[in-house]
Write a structure and sequence with these properties.
- It is built from no helices and eleven strands.
- It is an all-beta fold.
- Strands 2, 4, 5, 6, 9, 10 and 11 form a seven-stranded mixed β-sheet that branches.
- A hairpin with a 6-residue loop joins strand 4 and strand 5.
- The protein is globular, with a radius of gyration of 13 Å.
- The model has no long low-confidence stretch (mean pLDDT 95).
Length: 127
């Protein structure tokens, strides 16, 4: 069973950047599709980005496309989310998620597909 721990959140001014990390343990992480979701107060959980187990590229929600980049280092069992040109509306708790995938190109926008979740890290963007 995989355990996920996020880090890298914090307070940043609008236009700034942050890099989130998600460290995995307890499994062969290279066999997992990984993603980032976020949830702001009073709002539903939102898909941010996903990356296939084969690192075949990232898939992004419309609100972050062109600003965020997801990547992974399977040797370090870590997934990253580089967030650039941050906006106040990016303020949320960001959570890492993963599921064991049979297919190298598998990914999903649906939170229900992800079996493993981290505890989340707060990102606050001031205007």
């Amino acid at each position: 069973q995989v355990q996920l721990v996020e880090s890298g959140g914090g307070l940043v001014q609008a236009g700034g950047s942050l890099r989130l990390s998600c460290a995995a343990s307890g499994g062969t992480f290279s066999g997992y599709t990984a993603a980032w979701f976020r949830q702001a107060p009073g709002k539903e959980r939102e898909f941010v980005a996903a990356i296939t187990r084969g690192d075949g590229g990232g898939y992004y929600g419309d609100s972050v496309k062109g600003r965020f980049i997801i990547s992974r280092d399977n040797a370090k069992n870590t997934v990253y989310l580089q967030m650039n040109n941050l906006k106040p509306e990016d303020t949320a708790v960001y959570s890492c998620a993963a599921y064991e995938s049979r297919f190298i190109a598998s990914y999903s926008y649906n939170a229900g597909e992800y079996r493993y979740w981290g505890q989340g890290t707060q990102v606050t963007v001031s205007s």
